[in-house]
Write a structure and sequence with these properties.
heterodimer, A: about 260 residues, mainly alpha, two-stranded antiparallel sheet, 10 helices, globular, B: about 325 residues, alpha/beta, Rossmann fold, Alpha-Beta Plaits, 4-stranded antiparallel β-sheet, 14 strands, AAA+_ATPase (chain B), ABC transporter ATP-binding protein (chain B)
Chain lengths: ~260, ~325
């Protein structure tokens, strides 16, 4: 049995996490939708009035992939980090440590649920954007693939943050101090090509730029960096996060004594 | 025949240097109830935590149902249910969902009939749709038991099951354990309450300073370490023990109406018949006699005390 995966265990965790999401459906759904509408009003209508188009794409439509990415990143990290931190906080983490589920089942359950929630909200935002701007998706398959890989990568990152955190303050500090700035500086609302050469070079050190760029390419065929590089970046992130999680469970760091 | 749990030379030293367990070995038979007794910090919870997977042992091995805890951890863990010392439940989750969730974690398919049976047996069926935060402390503890039983474990660990609960609830908990014994579940419990061990356990293990001092059947332990006290009520109060009765450790009560005589139940001759004869010879008329067995508490204290004095030596 050691070699095979405990699928009912994975489903139990996934289902439990999704049920919590649906229990607080208004909180989960309404808040990102309202934020998105505000972004459209502020960036789309106010600024969009001054910037007619970016590389031939109307500004309102241009920011849609960035807004979706912003939401996916924030939701993936917060759902996954809270999902695993809460059992640590309430003491129910013991159940995961004594039952026949290993790191792979726990990760699949929590990360799978966090990524699913983030993707669902991103798609709702896409739906909302149709009310404001006309958006045409050039490569729908790649759009979903980027969405999935990004949600997976950042849910894995959030899961690590949740495992590491010892308090609610620690749980919030990385999303607040690192991820949100990276998204805003990662070209969610502009193209890196619009920056002066020096800042464009600096911006290219930001890993989030590669995600947004790849995602925007799937919509409009426009990219700040080659799509292959974007895919490599997100695949690398997924691989590194998996390795870290495996190490945490193997050593029991912050989990068992 | 090997027991359902085999513990071999188990030791645990924490990172801080604290040695919580030292070379503990024991075998637990299927279907028995074993109580682990010991003062705070003795190593009881560490022992349970290692077997359940919460703590990594520094050395030694454990097998559950013939499955090595390290190599075949999934198969070993499937056989175990744990009721932790601290009440830990998702506050906003319904009782029935908590139990369903644990069953799923153990890789079992949904079985609503069995979950109903477990909840009914723990008097929780009427509360199945209540959020756990709405329950009383006793009910929460029963939810923990229901969760631990959700996958039909062969071995159930109860870590201080009645810590901080009132007397009525403690009795209720004992009834639950008695029912589980009838169902053939092997139970390992830790407790501070000697009364609890005396009431429920077949065998008792005493742990102190991380060492297993002994594991014996309750009756054997009481017989081996238990002393009996014979109390003799005399017809006329005495001023002192007559010199003819000296050297037997007799104690006279303050009002002179009772003589106490402590004897060893294992001794070939208890000396009771001779004492009664000598009382008559000394002109003392006996009105009544009674005996009292020393409680497990006294046995436990004497074991722990002798362990302390050995340490001091």
């Amino acid at each position: 049995m050691n070699a095979s995966i405990n699928w009912p265990g994975v489903w139990a965790i996934f289902h439990h996490e999704m049920m919590r999401f649906f229990r607080t459906i208004w909180q989960s759904m309404a808040s990102p939708v309202v934020s998105t509408v505000l972004y459209f009003v502020v960036f789309g209508a106010a600024i969009g009035g001054r910037i007619q188009s970016v590389e031939g794409v109307p500004y309102g439509a241009f920011i849609v992939p960035g807004l979706m990415m912003l939401t996916v990143l924030q939701q993936s990290v917060s759902n996954a980090s809270f999902g695993i931190y809460f059992p640590k906080f309430s003491g129910t983490i013991y159940e995961y440590l004594v039952s026949p589920v290993g790191w792979i089942e726990v990760t699949m359950g929590f990360v799978g649920a966090a990524a699913a929630k983030a993707m669902l909200i991103a798609l709702i935002i896409l739906g909302t954007s149709f009310f404001f701007v006309g958006v045409h998706i050039l490569h729908p398959f790649w759009m979903l693939a980027f969405l999935f890989l990004t949600a997976l990568g950042f849910s894995l990152l959030g899961f690590i943050i949740g495992l590491w955190a010892k308090s609610f303050e620690q749980l919030q500090i990385i999303p607040m101090m690192v991820i949100t700035p990276l998204v805003f500086l990662g070209g969610a609302f502009y193209s890196a090509n619009m920056l002066p050469p020096f800042w464009e070079a600096v911006a290219k050190l930001n890993p989030v730029l590669y995600l947004i760029s790849g995602f925007r390419w799937s919509f409009f065929g426009l990219a700040d960096v080659p799509v292959g590089v974007s895919l490599m970046a997100v695949a690398l992130m997924v691989g590194v996060c998996f390795a870290i999680i495996r190490w945490i469970f193997a050593t029991g760091w912050r989990l068992r004594e | 025949m090997a027991g359902i749990i085999e513990i071999d030379n188990l030791s645990k030293q924490y990172g801080s240097g604290t040695k919580a367990l030292s070379n503990v070995s024991m075998s637990i038979e299927e279907g028995e109830i074993i109580a682990l007794l010991g003062p705070n910090g003795a190593g009881k919870t560490t022992l349970i935590s290692i077997i359940c997977g919460l703590v990594e042992a520094s050395s030694g091995s454990v097998s559950v149902g013939g499955h090595d805890l390290r190599k075949e951890w999934r198969a070993a863990r499937k056989l175990i249910g744990l009721v932790p010392q601290e009440i830990a439940l998702e506050p906003f989750e319904k009782v029935i969902n908590c139990v369903r969730f644990t069953r799923g974690l153990y890789g079992e398919k949904p079985d609503e009939a069995y979950i109903e049976q477990v909840l009914r047996s723990l008097a929780l069926w009427d509360k199945r749709d209540a959020a756990t935060r709405e329950l009383s402390g006793g009910m929460k503890r029963r939810v923990l038991i229901a969760k631990a039983l959700s996958h039909r474990p062969k071995v159930l660990f109860l870590d201080e099951p009645t810590a901080g609960v009132d007397v009525a609830l403690r009795r209720e908990m004992w009834q639950v354990v008695e029912q589980l014994r009838k169902d053939g579940v092997t139970i390992i419990l830790t407790t501070h309450y000697l009364e609890e061990a005396e009431e429920m356990a077949d065998r008792i293990g005493v742990i102190n300073h991380g060492q297993l001092l002994l594991v014996k059947s309750k009756d054997e332990l009481m017989g081996e370490f238990g002393k009996k006290t014979l109390t003799i009520e005399v017809d006329a109060p005495l001023e002192a023990i007559p010199s003819g009765l000296a050297g037997r450790g007799l104690v006279l009560s303050q009002d002179g109406s009772c003589i106490s005589y402590e004897y060893d139940t294992r001794a070939e001759r208890t000396g009771i018949a001779r004492l009664l004869g000598d009382l008559a010879t000394n002109g003392i008329t006996v009105r009544d006699v009674s005996t009292r067995q020393s409680s497990l508490e006294e046995v436990f204290m004497s074991l722990v005390e002798s362990d302390k004095s050995e340490d001091a030596a």
